[in-house]
Amino acid sequence: MKKIFLAAIAIAFFAACSKSFLERSPIDEQTEESFYKTPEQALQALVSVYNQLEIGDYDNIHLVSEIASDDCFGGGGTSDLVWKQWDRFEASSNMNLTLWQKYYTGIYRANVLLSKIDNVSWGSDSTLKTQYTAEARFLRAYFYFDLVRLFGNIPMTTKPLIPSELNMPQSDPSVVYAQIAEDLKYAADNLPATPYGSISSANYGRVNKWAAASLIGRVFLYYTGYYSQNDLAGVITKAQAVTYLDNVINNGGYGLVDTFANLWQSALTRFVGEDNKETVWSIKFTYKGLGNWDQHNGNRMQVDIAIRNQVLDPYYKGWGAGTVNSSLWNAYDNNDTRRGAGIISIQNENLTTYAQGDQAQYTGYFWKKYTPMNAGNAVEMGGDFQIDNYYDDVVIRYSDVLLMAAELNLDGNLAKAQDYYNKVRDRAFLSTSYRKTLTADAAGKTLIMNERRLELALEGQRYWDLLRQGVAVAKAAIDNAGSSDMTVSFPAATKGLFKIPEQEISLSNGVYQQNAGW
Asked: 20 to 30 A from 412, CA-CA: which of 210, 356, 438, 499?
């Protein structure tokens, strides 16, 4: 019997985590043959797939894609190189390695669970089996979506591989997207239709029907835009994508929080809290790693983007990555509440004690969304400020669903598109006086894309929204002819794809080919 340490192959647990269903008892050692027998063991395996969502430090896709967009520079300290390299599209050795490893580890864990799920003794009730299968397939689709839009031609498998199978060739993106669509369709069609108000707080952070349906919309828009296709890899039509999003809007029980600023921790006592009615799905974090660097319970992106090396009440300190481009600040109307709610302006907030120090690519603007607050900071909670920040990463907000649905309905049901669009703008201005009229043409699409930039700024969507409008559009937006420190030239030859790590190409014995432009 081959003995396997499950932590090494797939089973990792949140021993220090207090995020309800993610809190499972650790197991020191199990054999593969004795595992995957009970529903409890299946849940532990599922938790190990969720666990991979938390992995990430200076290089998670949320931060990296914002730095690659026109809304942020690399920032960090003057001696920090990696963020500036993403900002300027400069190659470095083994660039993106941890991104690659994170997602393939998550995919492997999902594939192991799905390959073993029939071995579990489910009894007469197959409900749990269907739910766990749907959750695992959603997570696999999520991991593959990030991988394929980052790297394009990637190896794809839906089963655990043995060593002789590891050097499988890269798949055409259409094949990967077809699998993503199949997985998300299964999840959206099989997860229970529990509206937001009836979801148990113990299940916050678990994917549900509404998250799957929403992600279908996001994947559909990206694939059809970037690859100039009419449907999602032959699996999901535009009409079906519209139906999935409309179902979230009409039956999901979600809604817009009345005041945009109250969505974020920086609202302090007015903060509506995590898992509010606008959060369709978020990645959960907690401070309870309590300084243990072997734990990955904290949101490490928060320290990256916080104001560098100084506490400016109410904001806590960090490394100053992703300095915000003044062009984003200037894109807002002066009466748009989202500007001050999402971006820290050193001047406008009269933060007179700010000292630039070794802050690179200083613009005067930092992220307010996701910046840790001084009150209740990680150190006060008994942790390490570098690894134990604990604000959840909101992956899908209801306003994003409204704007996706508006875009997809633009040429089919203009009145519906206008209604969805109005809801987002009315909340932004706390008034109906700032509405703009959509048209069923390129001008209407431009209005929606501009609204997405303002509504979802610094939430990891801008780079992908640019790319799906075309490489030329992305280059026109991202190129920056400022001082030498701020000069950015988007390399159109890459088509927006990231560099595949050299280590992975080397380990493939030349089977993998590097993306063009790198």
From this structure: 210
Query: Could you list the mean pLDDT of each consecutive 10-residue stretch along the chain, which spans 518 residues?
Result: 30 40 50 84 97 92 97 96 95 94 97 96 91 98 98 96 85 98 98 96 96 98 98 98 98 98 98 98 96 93 98 98 98 98 98 97 98 97 96 98 98 98 98 98 98 98 98 98 90 98 93 96
Task: At 323, list the tokens.
Answer: 């300095």
pTM over 0.90: yes
Helix (H) or strand (E) holding 3: strand 3-4
Q: How far apart are CA 397 and CA 280, in angstroms?
A: 5
Q: How many residues are given for the chain?
A: 518
Q: What is the largest CA-CA distance in the chain?
A: 71
Q: Which residues of 11-47 are buried (b: 16+ CB within 10 A; e: fewer)?
A: bbbbebbebebbbbeeeeebebeebbeeeebbbbbbb
**H/E element holding 307?**
strand 307-308
End-to-end CA distance of the chain: 45
H or E stretch at 304 = helix 301-305
Beta bridge partners of 343: 367
- Tokens of residue 163, six digits: 């060593």
Q: Which residue type sits at 128?
A: L
